[in-house]
């Protein structure tokens, strides 16, 4: 960045003002987007592999074994971001205290 003089300030402030206005406009556009605008999180297999941090080959094998939620149109596979995140959450292993709480609840409901 080159040094600027006092005489340069009006031009610099004008440029900064335009940039801030552009940033504000982009932020408003992002806020006003609906889920449909983003194809409801539609992803290719490469994007899905980056999201869930599995290789493409591993995802293909999980698709073949019906272990992962997928949509297929022709030869192309599509994944929904929300479905992949739900799939990951469904595999969560409960802690001992969570299991104990469930057992306690079931015992109380029996009485």
Question: What is the structure about, briefly put?
Answer:
InterPro entries: HTH_17 (IPR041657). Residues 42-91 form the Helix-turn-helix domain. The protein has 111 residues and is mainly α.
The oligomeric state of the chains shown is: single chain
Number of helices: 5
- What count of domains describes the coordinates? 2
Overall geometric form: elongated
* Proportion in helices: 55-70%
Q: What spatial order of strands do you see in the largest sheet?
A: 1-3-2
Spans of at least 5 consecutive residues whose pLDDT stays below 50 are none
**Main sheet?**
3 strands, antiparallel
Structural class: mainly alpha
Strand content: 5-15%
Would you list the SSEs in sequence order as H and E?
A: HEHHEEHH
Annotation, overall tally of beta strands: 3
CATH class identity of the largest domain? Mainly Alpha
- CA radius of gyration is 25 Å
CATH fold name of the largest domain: Arc Repressor Mutant, subunit A
Overall pLDDT: 88
Would you identify the CATH architecture of the largest domain?
Answer: Orthogonal Bundle
Protein name: DNA binding domain, excisionase family
InterPro entries: HTH_17
Organism: Flavobacterium johnsoniae (strain ATCC 17061 / DSM 2064 / JCM 8514 / BCRC 14874 / CCUG 350202 / NBRC 14942 / NCIMB 11054 / UW101) (Cytophaga johnsonae)
Domain Helix-turn-helix: 42-91
